[in-house]
Design brief:
Order of helices and strands: HHHHHEEEHHEEEH
Distance between the termini: 28 Å
Largest sheet: 4 strands, mixed
Number of strands: 6
Strand content: 15-25%
Helix content: 40-55%
Length: about 220
């Protein structure tokens, strides 16, 4: 799993951050806030201690100015970094939901993979219907099983669960690889050309309910 520090570094060096998140207004406010903090410290030391830093500031004003700009800049970057994760607890239930920006297949634990009712496995580069960019397509790349064995294991799981093709939306089958259970949850119907048809929010709700029942 990618560490938060590395993830934030990747965000900062990405041009999208500077185009969509970084704020010059926030930077200016942070710089002035930094100068305000310097001024407050100066006044406190001047009025409540026998020490004063005004002579140092007067003789090194360019250094203080530079420090204020640099500190304000980094404060601004920190404040405008996009959230990498968030969590929500459902009311009156011991259920948490959350999102995280990370490599899904490097996160430890079992995983739910969106699947199709006809159990198509082949990706576009295998003359199939599944996009390599989809969750199912990326799942194919992540597991250490070749195409033939994947199709065999999926067919076996379908038979073990008593399903026939096409499966109903909300059907769940399990494929295990390298100690991880992959729950293939049928969310979509595919046309003969591989396009998604008859997929709506109600299907998603029913599928999640079926998954909950399956796991319990």
């Amino acid at each position: 799993m990618i560490s938060k520090k590395l993830l934030y570094l990747k965000l900062i060096i990405n041009t999208l951050y500077w185009k969509n998140y970084f704020s010059y207004t926030e930077t200016a406010e942070s710089v002035f806030s930094t100068y305000g903090f310097f001024w407050a410290v100066t006044e406190i030391t001047e009025n409540f201690t026998p020490y004063t830093i005004k002579p140092f500031i007067n003789s090194n004003w360019s250094l203080v100015l530079s420090i204020g700009i640099i500190v304000g800049f980094f404060i601004s970057v920190y404040k405008t970094l996009p959230k990498t994760e968030a969590h929500y607890k459902f009311r009156n239930a011991e259920i948490f939901a959350g999102f995280m920006i990370n490599d899904f297949f490097k996160i430890q634990g079992d995983k739910v993979i969106s699947f199709n009712t006809d159990a198509h496995i082949k990706t576009h580069n295998e003359n199939g219907f599944i996009s390599e960019k989809s969750i199912q397509g990326q799942w194919r790349k992540a597991i250490s099983i070749d195409l033939t064995n994947t199709e065999t294991l999926v067919s076996k799981s379908i038979n073990d669960e008593g399903y026939t093709l096409p499966m109903q939306v909300g059907s769940v089958i399990t494929l295990k690889n390298d100690g991880v259970n992959y729950y293939l949850l049928t969310l979509t119907n595919l046309s003969q050309t591989g396009h998604v048809v008859n997929s709506n929010f109600t299907d998603i709700q029913n599928s999640l309910y079926s998954l909950w029942q399956y796991l319990h």
